[in-house]
């Protein structure tokens, strides 16, 4: 960050034996949820009568059937539940395990023939990834589906290293038969020979996250980041929401698990704030209208995650990527699948958002995420927590960062104490002028006690957000 770190004033200490005393000034409004009722479609889903559909498709259909919206939220929506209501729904439990992600068998061809419609010429592309299927006799062969795609790694673009492998930018190739190339001299009759298959060059790009299977196996239980859970979560959230990055397909090439995702060419939200401060010396953060623009989109992404039963657990400006005039939540490697009380009424049985009735608290799962945005309950790692309310806290710190250019170094340090006990005094000491509504919203987001923290529904209806 180009802006200097501003020293905080001396603020009172946080007495963790009485967090209610800290947050009694912070706004909280209880909006009781309506009585739970699930429609026939959900009954069919939980009994296995809706087959052949993705979880994301099922979620979309179920949500659309009950779409009585107010401020973008349904009348019966998890975003309206307060912490106390979740706490009263049953004993805390572990997160719901993710199902192992499905994938397609694939290959990486050293060379393939590609046709360029613009030049009307063929050329050879190297290192091309594409899926395979099986012939009727069980032998693997190249699929001849005309809508199937392949991915050509950009030859002059260096891969980006990741914890589990690398990320590469690829050009999408569309599979076709050579006799589709009607303008070339090397036409051939339509046949079933593999040599008759070529790829059509397109102008579309994707990002391919290449996870090394040997590295995943060694690292799977060493840290909170789980690439298999990330893939499973991306499949749950789908690929059609404008503010959450989903997955196009997953391909296993015999050595690596390749996750194909939409390509987002911009930087992240941290870069956006940093670049603004570099170009506007003397300013301490984004103007409120700019921060509001990005924050609204972040809230929409969070709402989609909540409706999908997913807690991100690692929200940060670095995990909000900018593409054009839109932003997307990325990096679900540390996410959790929220537990819900089973429909059979047995408190000991939990399930996911599709088949559950009421959301449950989660038992401590260890410290997770970036310290500058980590919620106090995750930092302490002693209390049962609600997955959605820890994401609300991190969203509050993201907004605080956008508006002030500052964060604390870790929970319960000096800046943290000032933010949570005397935010107006801290801003005055820093000579930062924020609107009354902005300060009011930040205080509701950054309540140390999650019982006093705003719900996502209350945030989306807040005057600063709607203004």
TrEMBL record:
Residues 158-465 form the Protein kinase domain. One of its GO terms (cellular component) is nucleus. InterPro entries: Kinase-like_dom_sf, Prot_kinase_dom, Tyr_kinase_AS. GO terms for molecular function: ATP binding; protein serine/threonine kinase activity. Gene3D superfamilies: Transferase(Phosphotransferase) domain 1. Keywords: ATP-binding, Kinase, Nucleotide-binding, Serine/threonine-protein kinase, Transferase. The keyword ATP-binding applies. PANTHER family: SERINE/THREONINE-PROTEIN KINASE PLK, SERINE_THREONINE-PROTEIN KINASE PLK4. This is Protein kinase domain-containing protein. It comes from Odontella aurita. The lineage of its organism: Eukaryota, Sar, Stramenopiles, Ochrophyta, Bacillariophyta.
């Amino acid at each position: 960050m180009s802006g200097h770190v501003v020293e905080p004033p001396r603020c009172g200490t946080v007495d963790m034996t009485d967090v209610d005393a800290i947050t009694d000034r912070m706004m909280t409004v209880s909006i009781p949820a309506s009585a739970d009722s699930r429609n026939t479609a959900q009954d069919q889903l939980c009994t296995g009568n809706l087959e052949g559909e993705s979880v994301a498709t099922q979620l979309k259909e179920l949500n659309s059937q009950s779409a009585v919206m107010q401020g973008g939220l349904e009348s019966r929506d998890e975003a309206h539940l307060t912490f106390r209501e979740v706490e009263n729904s049953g004993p805390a439990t572990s997160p719901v395990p993710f199902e192992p992600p499905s994938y397609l068998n694939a290959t990486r061809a050293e060379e393939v023939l590609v046709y360029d419609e613009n030049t009307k010429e063929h050329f050879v592309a190297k290192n091309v990834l594409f899926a395979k299927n099986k012939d009727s006799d069980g032998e693997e062969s190249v699929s001849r589906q005309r809508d199937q795609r392949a991915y050509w790694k950009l030859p002059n673009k260096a891969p980006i290293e990741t914890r589990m492998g690398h990320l590469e930018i690829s050009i999408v190739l569309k599979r076709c038969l050579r006799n589709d190339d009607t303008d070339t001299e090397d036409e051939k009759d339509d046949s079933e020979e593999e040599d008759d298959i070529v790829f059509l060059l397109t102008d579309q790009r994707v990002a391919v996250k290449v996870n090394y299977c040997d590295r995943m196996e060694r690292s799977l239980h060493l840290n909170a980041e789980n690439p298999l859970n990330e893939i499973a979560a991306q499949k749950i959230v789908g690929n059609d929401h404008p503010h959450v990055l989903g997955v196009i397909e997953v391909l296993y090439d015999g050595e690596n698990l390749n996750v194909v995702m939409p390509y987002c060419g911009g930087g992240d939200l941290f870069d956006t704030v940093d670049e603004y401060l570099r170009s506007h010396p003397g300013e301490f953060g984004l103007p409120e209208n700019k921060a509001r623009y990005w924050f609204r989109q972040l809230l929409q992404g969070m709402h989609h995650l909540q409706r999908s039963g997913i807690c991100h657990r690692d929200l940060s400006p670095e995990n909000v990527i900018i593409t054009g005039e839109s932003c997307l939540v990325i990096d679900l490697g540390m996410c959790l699948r929220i537990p819900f009380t089973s429909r059979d009424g047995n408190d000991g049985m939990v399930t996911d958002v599709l088949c559950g009735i009421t959301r449950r608290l989660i038992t401590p799962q260890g410290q997770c995420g970036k310290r500058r945005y980590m919620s106090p309950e995750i930092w302490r790692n002693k209390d049962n927590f609600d997955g959605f309310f820890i994401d609300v806290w991190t969203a509050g710190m993201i907004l605080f960062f956008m508006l002030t250019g500052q964060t604390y170094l870790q929970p319960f340090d000096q800046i943290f104490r000032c933010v949570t006990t005397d935010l107006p005094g801290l801003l005055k000491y820093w000579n930062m002028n924020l609107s009354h509504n902005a300060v009011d919203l930040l205080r509701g987001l950054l309540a140390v006690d999650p019982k006093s923290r705003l719900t996502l529904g209350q945030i989306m209806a807040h005057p600063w957000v709607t203004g």
